[in-house]
């Protein structure tokens, strides 16, 4: 990926951080996006630059269309082109019976998990270089019905359809569009809180491989889809949940 530019939304922490640093290790210059945690974003910049690549940090709320446009403007201004876009930013809200979901809960998750990625992909389609790579990060709650994930799963599932349409519309330019569908990720999201250990154990028991995924697992799959080797893969959902689905 040497000489290419990768933009990863929500890349100051968690999955986004792991994905961005993997792309930097592969040689891509990187655009680090954060919403609130500037300190973490600057730490990621230092780690990326240690790989010998260029990196910039851009604050943007990717549930806001003007902020999304400003994020892409900054990337193009700094690097002149965008070759890889990973729509990672999102919000996790699980263990809530659907009867307890409020209108405010619904509006928040759909703004962050559906509206935001939709317009991140729209702007990617407008600005990405020919033969570029677009990858979204979904969740296996869209493939495995589970108690308490009605709101979260429905907020994520729309992108599974969009990537298939986007793959059709962008294919003539050699641009691929795919989704990584991870299962629960250890030491990320709600599993940074020890109070969820019992829930975590129940999920491990559902997983044939006997463990939860890691951010590095997801980063490796994303890096493959972002590579030249994945040029014939588009419009696909790559499920990586240890066989839970």
**CATH class wording:** Alpha Beta
The tally of domains stands at 1
What CATH architecture do you see?
Answer: 3-Layer(aba) Sandwich
CATH topology: Rossmann fold
CATH superfamily: NAD(P)-binding Rossmann-like Domain
H/E topology pattern:
EHEHEHEHEHEHHE
How are strands sequenced across the largest beta sheet? 3-2-1-4-5-6-7
* Rounded mean pLDDT score: 94
Which stretches are low in confidence, meaning pLDDT under 50 for 5 or more residues running?
none
What's the Cα radius of gyration?
17 Å
How would a textbook summarize the main sheet?
7 strands, parallel
Number of strands: 7
- Helix share, percent: 40-55%
Distance between the termini: 32 Å
| Number of alpha- plus pi-helical segments | 7
Strand content: 5-15%
Q: Pairing-aware structural class of the strands and helices?
A: alpha/beta
Name the shape in a single word: globular
How would you characterize this protein structure?
The protein has 245 residues and is an alpha/beta fold. The protein has a single domain, classed as Rossmann fold, CATH 3.40.50.720. It is built from seven helices and seven strands. The protein has a seven-stranded parallel sheet, sandwiched between helices. Strand 1, helix 1 and strand 2 form a beta-alpha-beta unit. Helix 1 (14-25) runs parallel beside helix 2, helix 1 (14-25) crosses helix 7 and helix 4 packs parallel to helix 5. The longest helix is centred in the middle third of the chain and has 25 residues, at 103-127. The radius of gyration is 17 Å and the shape is globular. The mean pLDDT is 94.
